[in-house]
Design goal:
This is LysM peptidoglycan-binding domain-containing protein. Residues 39-89 form the LysM domain. Pfam families: LysM. The chain is an alpha+beta fold and 91 residues long. The chain has one domain. Helix content is 42%, strand content 20%. The chain contains three helices and three strands. It has helices at residues 2-20, 49-56, 63-73; strands at 24-31, 37-42, 86-89. A hairpin with a 5-residue loop joins strand 1 and strand 2 (37-42).
């Protein structure tokens, strides 16, 4: 019975984290080429590059353009990302 409860609790935590699409953002202490601080995010389970772009793109910027900028900035050739990846977000 206790094994079931532990399994349920772990499943509940995983579903809570992935269901909300939470992205943890960190301000980097290093500077990029333009001299401004870079924003870094750590991908969590369930995140997509599109959702990250929607949440972090500059106001008025097209999401498709920002997705391509994220890919280019991080040397990605596809939109495939996985939990634990760290992405640097362009301005």
């Amino acid at each position: 019975m206790s094994r079931r409860l532990i399994t349920f609790a772990v499943l509940l935590v995983v579903l809570t984290v992935t269901g909300t699409g939470v992205v943890t953002a960190f301000a980097s202490s290093s500077e990029n080429h333009s001299g401004t601080e870079e924003a870094r995010i750590v991908v969590v389970p369930g995140d997509t590059l599109w959702e990250i772009a929607v949440d972090h793109k500059p106001r008025g910027k097209d999401t498709r353009v920002y997705v391509e900028a994220i890919k280019r900035f991080n040397g990605l050739t596809t939109s495939d990302i996985k939990a634990g990846d760290t992405l640097i977000l362009p301005d």
